[in-house]
Write the structure tokens for this entry.
Amino acid sequence: MATMLGQSDPANSPLGLMLLDEITPVVMVLRTPLVEEACLKNGLNLVELLTPFSTFNNIDVPVRTASDQPYRLQKFKLRLFYASDIRQPNLEVAKEQLKEVITHAGEKDFSDLCSDPPQIEDVLSTPESEILPSWFQFFNKELVRSLSFSDHEAFDHPVACLLVVSTKDERPLNRFVDLFNTNQLPFLLNDGVMDPKILKHYLLVHDNQDGSSEKAEKILTEMRSTFGSNDCQLLCINSSQDGLVEHEDNPWAPYKTDASLSQPLGCFLNIDDFNEIKDLMQDFSSKHIIPHMEQKIRVLNQQVSVTRKGFRNQIKNLWWRKGKEDTPDASNGPMYTFSSIESQIRVLGDYAFMLRDYELALSNYRLLSTDYKLDKAWKRCAGVQEMMGLTYFLLDQSRKEAEYCMENAFNTYLKIGSSGQQNATRCGLWWIEMLKTRDQYKEAASVYFRISGEEPLHSAVMLEQASYCYLFSKPPMLHKYGFHLVLSGDHYKKCDQIKHAIRTYRRALSVYKGTMWSYIKDHVHFHIGKWYAFLGMFDVAVPHMLEVLTCGHQSKTTQDLFLREFLQIVQNTGKKFEVLKLQLPAINIPSVKVIFEDNRTYASPAAASVRESMWQSLEEDMIPSLPTIRTNWLESLPKNISKKHKQSNICVTGEAIKVDVEFKNPLQITISISSVSLICELSASSEEMDCDANSSTSELQNDEESGKLTISREQTSNSSFTLSEADFSLGGGERIMVQLTVTPRIEGILKVVGVRWNLSDSVVGFHNFESNLVKKKIAKGRRKAKHSPSDNLKFLVIKSLPKLEGSIHHLPEKVYAGDLRRLVLELRNQSEYPVKNMKMKISSPRFLNVGSWEILNTEFPACLEKKTDPEQRVQANHNKESHTVFLFPEDTLIQGGTPFLWPLWLRAAVPGNIPLYITIYYEMGDISNIMRHRTLRMYHNLQVLSSLDLSFQISPCPSRLKEFLVRMDAVNKTSSEIFQIHQLSSVGHQWKISLLQPVETMLPSELMPGQALSRFFKLENVRKLTTPEDKVSLLAPQEGSDVKLGSEASNEILFDICSSPLADFHICERIHQEGSHQEHPNSVDFILISQPSNDSINTGLPNPPPHLFSHHVCHCRIESTSPIWWLMEGPRTIHHNFSASFCEVKLKMTLYNSSDLSASIFIHTLDSIPSTSQLSEVMAGSPGNQAGWYDTSLLNDIKVTSDVLGMKVGKPPSLDSVSQFIWSGSCSTKVEVEPMSTAVVPLQICVFSPGTYDLSNYALHWNLLSSKDEGSHGKCPGSPYYLTVLQSA
Amino acid sequence: MASTACFIIVSRNDIPIYEAEVGSAVKKEDAAQQHQFILHAALDVVQDLAWTTSAMFLKAIDRFNDLVVSVYVTAGHILLLICFFQPKGAFNLRCYVLESSLISIPLSLSSCSRVSNCTAPNLGSTDRN
């Protein structure tokens, strides 16, 4: 609305009003000291006394200037100045004055700077007038005024002179004359810049306190006769005798700024005086000034018309000026006296302007501007253009023209150098107002920027004004607003106006709040903080400094600077600050882990970090099912514990809750952190807890909301719990995981609230876990997700309980595969109360097994020796249960810190990283507690390196029925360990192993790193038919046979493979090595026991305890598929006289059924088909014939050839040859063989000629007779049997 | 004379997503923040200009003392702002900006940069002169 009005009437715009105020006729006042004295009784000097009455809002005077058409003037104003003040103000003084004004304004505005900076939305919605500091206008006005009374402009030249003499003066008439004739007159009059013949007005002042005005009247009459009747007036003041007149709406108050008033203004002026002054000034302006100006305008206009108007004059002027071109050119152009036509035009223009005949003014300015341009009088030219611009604006005709004139004037002022700087500023200010009136704020801002100049204070104010222009522009240019505020702040800082600097920066902050432009944010916050600190307002400085602490993007030096500055400020505050969510160091909230022990206790931190499901599956069948136990102990809970606490985690008095927190240093510099501890709340009883927790949490929330700093409060609850503290220093970019603990001392509800730390011993940072999701490592499986995260940090503290601590002695970290050693499990209970009913379960019985109590006190490895007395043997635990849960003896009670030891066996079965999980369940001796049982969880990781690579090959012995050859290949795969092979054992009573050769002849038994070794053994089947009961325990090796292998082993002992632990481990091995193989009766297990050589290269394991190596190879199978073994017996060489008869040879076939079923065997001889049986030397290369000839490779001493070989069918070497022998007797024989028994079948052949014969052309068809199903059957081709028949002599 | 330039890619909502100081001049400690200030302030001008012209490369839209700001406005209204010393930069600015505009395309497509609330300014307000 206001702008609309302004646009419709430029005179009502701010600029219009400003011009109305500034460009008005000046009245020079000359007075005697006695006049001044009379006025000062009212606290006012003469000019001050008259000023309020020289502004007329409704003077309503008819004016007729150059044209014949009169118009009425409504608003009018006179400016009164003492003659001594009519001079160009001293620039330095003016500057000092401005500085004072600004400093003063800074102090005044500063009071509200401690509050938060406003939101940008609020800034945008508040009206301009509230945002703009009020002193801007004053500042601008002062700037304009500093240019008053310049010689190149006429509007500041006095229009009239007011001579004032008091009635108390001696010879008043002479005084009037003296006043004007002194040399005190301003330079404008003396230097000839303006016409000294000035309108004079004579005023006689009479102080009514000095007596009646009769004398005054007399003087007035004299004056009138001397100076003319119209120009003389009398003013009586101070009519009030008591000086107690109170003026409502004191008219002087707005003009008298300094508030130090000893007396009320105008206290001696009663209403008559008041009206008299008013009438005087009205009369003076309307009857003297205005008519005088009208008169002068008309005269001057006449002159100008004569000399300059018209075509002829223009040509003449042009020519004349060109001729003047040669004259020396001063910087201001030629000097113009008041009588020169240029000065007169200027006076004409300015008078017309002041009387608001803008048309007339404009035409004269135009005329003048070309003249000055031609004269190169740039300053005057600019002055005229400036006035043209203003006139255009007030005429509201051509906006473009107005702006063009202003810009032109502005540039011209700048062009003339430093002397024009001030004028340029004034011109700029008017130009800006002009632009503002037209809502061209953006352009206005750029003009502000252009007039900002060099001088810091000046430019600071101008830049700040520019920033507001950006703010007010539509749409608001907030980026520019912020930028210019910052620029302005920098300039304020340069001239030590810190308070203003803070003010501008704080305003800029509302723009930059929440921005991602990190450097900007850092710069603004850092400087505000620094400046506040400079002013000693450290408390306010700290929050700003906090903002820049996490400046990871800054350079190292900057980070260092920021941190140093921050710490210094905090130190200066002289107290410790608590800062919520201090970002230094940063806390990785998702990494926060809470480790606590309720039913579940952990022997080591590693155990605690194992997955809960792992433990659960391990403990599944050991502890009573969870829901049951839960209801059980809940029932025994006191009734008053409310339901929600059921959800809480449980922890035990005196047992630490550990919280792992990861700290990260976001900076590149090292920061030192000390006294890191948890913040906890512990309330003793449940009722108390409710109110306590509520109050404390609400308090915390408040803190969070306000984000304010609070002075460090005392840790009050120190007695009820203890906290651990950690100190560390974090290098640039480092992360550190810190474990913090809280140990409750009394029962109640414990809440872990957050973490606190000291940064560089001066700032206390704390961080609440509440607001963030804390990943709880030990989330119970049964726990539902519905719990709020805060529940995870809430603990129900129950009274002290026994707790087992466990450790395993001598557990190595790194072992070779096969390593067998004895370990000792130590359990302790520090509590007075015993624990009982202990059970233990081990995750991998293949690696770790429970020993028996007795072996604890025996020597190792001597305790593994084979005892002569079978009664003394420690029987292997064949109970299936033993692999799952081991029950400690029932009478075991652990209490009072006495260690309880129990042996364990470790055997490193296979190479790799082996996790060992051990869980021990125990129950409380004291059943009054709500927790009745606990578990101790132990976890170890075992690194097993590969050692011996062992393989066995078993092949049937060609010459014996139930004997086999065993070949053992061993390779030492270690890099340093030397194995001394001690003993090889076969497991099971049906096998017996023995040496092929005596020990003495054997190679050394030491196996160096990388060395391979092969040994041959004889294996004998001693299997008997077993009863069905025995079959059940087939897994258990009751018996075994051993072979000593050590070279000097004659005096060494054998280890018992049939007793614990070797037997137990063997069972595990059997199960693990079973793989896809079916349990086969004809498989054999071997155990190779070796000892570490004494001169083994040290592998870095210092002085290892005694240990053995046992390598188990299970399910070694004889390379045969048939359960039927047979052997052909008979003579090998026969001498026979073929001339007498053919030779009859009797043979015997022994059949053995190795299966558990009776077998039906059918021997089928194949000589019915004619085939060659004569063996020649050619045979070696022959593939054999159709009738079952086979290669007789000498290497191949396998009796029953493989099926693959059996399928090989060759052609007879010579088809024409006739069979040299025939099977005599029955060509097929069928026998039934009982399980595990032998049968003998007689066979016979007839040989017709001497030679060597292979009697392998037969086949065995066998069929196992099973009661359940068909059973298996198969066919075995005959094995070679060579018979040599010689012709006897 | 050593030239210096600062290059910033600004996504919607005035979030800087890439920042680089290029040029051979010795780095001053406060250069980074000065450049940020200038480029940040230039955003106002970009927002005005970008909708009034079809050109994508807007040369010398703003200046502060000797530093001139040019901008390449991508189709996704991701701004590539560059401010450099002296109007005649030491390198071919247009080429550099075009090259880097290719880099910004994946950025604009990335789900990380919010491309919602696309607001064109009130077109009625542009005819005020």
Remarks:
- The CA atoms of residues 916 and 940 of chain A lie 5 Å apart.
- The longest strand of chain A covers residues 671-683.
- The first helix of chain A runs from residue 2 to 8.
- The radius of gyration of chain A is 61 Å.
